[in-house]
Design a protein that fits this description.
The structure holds two protein chains of two kinds.
Chain A lengths: L3 E4 L5 E8 L30 E7 L5 E9 L4 E8 L15 H15 L6 E3 L6 H8 L2 E2 L6 E3 L1 H11 L2
Helix pairs in contact in A: 1-3
Chain B lengths: L5 E4 L6 E4 L4 E4 L4 E4 L6 E3 L4 H22 L1 H24 L1
Antiparallel strand pairs in B: 1-4, 2-3
The chains are: A alpha+beta, B alpha+beta.
Chain lengths: 163, 96
């Protein structure tokens, strides 16, 4: 069921859904240009604590992005979040511009649904720290390299992109 | 120096019709090409074991700090308000 909406560069809106990622989904990701350093199949195995999800635009089978997160006692921890090559910031024909927003929103939604009030933590890439601060109001967790979104930040993302 | 690779992808039409009370938008037939040597696309990376420990401790401290700053009563009221909003908001989405 489409619960989210993606936006393109012209502000057109597309229905989207986030569904569980299967091991078979990960087979061709590297060939499609996803980062080879990260193996999404690890998150699809049944013997780990993570839930892996893929973001799909309605009427397309292409995976627009993916996220892996887990329940972390009093918040949701996001271990990996990746946007598909066609949605990269610097790609001149970039298709969807809010993939990260929607995926983080999903983590926030899950956090809210299990009683953690929307709190989410993650480790951003160093060059994206400012991006998370400005776009999501993410804050540092103490002196660690981790960042977090609180209840208000979570609510904002959900209200923006969740149907 | 990286070599540019262009992957031409012929996508069957990428169509999405989104009905709202105000308008209907339609997009069709997008052909995508992209270079695999664009900037990295991983937005969030896995934490090391030590980072995870530090973050867990830090998150507990953040919650505790919020309670102290707001006071327990106001903190509880804020979280309760969030839960009520969440229930109503997601219920509305299901109904619509």
């Amino acid at each position: 069921m489409p619960d989210w909406h993606l936006k393109d560069r012209l502000n057109h809106v597309y229905l989207a859904e986030i569904v569980s990622m299967a091991d078979s989904d990960t087979d061709n990701l590297h060939k499609l240009g996803w980062q080879v350093e990260f193996d999404w199949s690890i998150y699809c195995q049944s013997n780990n604590d993570y839930n892996a999800y893929k973001l799909l635009s309605i009427h397309s089978s292409y995976i627009q992005g993916a996220i892996a997160y887990r329940d972390n006692d009093d918040h949701v921890y996001v271990d990996l979040l990746e946007s598909a090559p066609q949605n990269r910031y610097r790609f001149k024909d970039r298709i969807f511009v809010n993939v990260t927003d929607v995926l983080l929103g999903q983590a926030c939604l899950y956090s809210q649904s299990i009683g953690y009030d929307g709190f989410v933590s993650f480790v951003p890439k160093n060059e994206l720290i400012r991006y998370y601060q400005q776009r999501f109001n993410a804050k540092f967790i103490g002196n660690s390299q981790g960042m977090y979104l609180d209840d208000i930040d979570a609510r904002r993302i959900i209200e923006l992109y969740y149907y | 120096m990286l070599r540019n690779k262009l992957i031409k992808l012929n996508e069957a039409s990428l169509q999405s019709i989104h009905h709202t009370n105000q308008n209907i938008r339609r997009v069709k037939n997008v052909t995508q090409t992209w270079s695999t040597t664009s900037k990295p696309i991983v937005m969030i990376k896995p934490a090391s074991a030590k980072q995870l420990v530090d973050m867990n401790v830090g998150m507990r401290a953040i919650r505790q700090s919020m309670k102290e700053d707001l006071g327990q009563k106001q903190y509880d009221a804020r979280m309760q308000s969030n839960r009520e909003w969440f229930e109503q908001y997601t219920a509305i989405q299901v109904r619509s």
